[in-house]
Amino acid sequence: MSLPITRCGVLASGSGLAAVPLLAACGEESGEVDVPPPPASGTALVATSDVPVQGCAVLAEEKIVVTQPAEGEFKAFSAACTHQGCLVSSSKDGVIPCTCHGSEFSLADGAVLKGPAEAALTEVPVEVRDGVVTATER
User: Fold this and answer.
1) Any bridge partners for residue 37, and if so which?
2) Residue 110 half-sphere exposure, CB side, CA atoms within 13 Å?
3) Domains in the chain, ordered, with CATH?
4) What range does the record give for the signal peptide (predicted)?
5) How far is Cα 54 from Cα 25, in angstroms, rounded to an integer?
């Protein structure tokens, strides 16, 4: 029986310890990415003026992406792409893009618009206080 050759299969067939670190390149399947814990309620995230209408701003340290799908409407999501955990990118183009493998997510609800990701981004509850997008409790 002939089995298909895959990158992970080739890496796994290596001998010795040298092959072990290479297996990390095989990534998880879509939807199995570790999502960072949400920020504490009351945490100031970003000024509303730093989030473009129909765009998003990525907060790399917090691993959160804040969006403004319509003027004055703000949403936030985990910035870890559900495909393999790459950080999504900031955008003014009407989507949350992941430039690692081309996935795109909705600004309004984090839903997948274009794969290879199959699962939506996890929402982080926020509100606007004095011109700043702030984390809130669920």
Assistant:
1) none
2) 21
3) 1-27 (no CATH), 31-135 (2.102.10.10)
4) 1-18
5) 34
Looking at the chain, the whole-number percentage of residues with pLDDT higher than 70 is: 74
| Spatial distance between the Cα atoms of 134 and 70, rounded to a whole number of angstroms | 18
For 8-69, the DSSP string reads HHHHHT--STTHHHHGGGG-PPTT-PPPPPPPPTT-EEEEGGGS-TTEEEEETTTTEEEEEE
pLDDT at 16 over 70: no
Kindly report which listed range (15-19, 90-94, 111-115, 128-132) carries the lowest average pLDDT score. 15-19
**Strand order across the beta sheet in which 126-129 lies:** 44-47, 132-135, 126-129
Mean pLDDT of 91-120: 95
CA-based nearest residue to 78, from 41, 34, 33, 124: 124
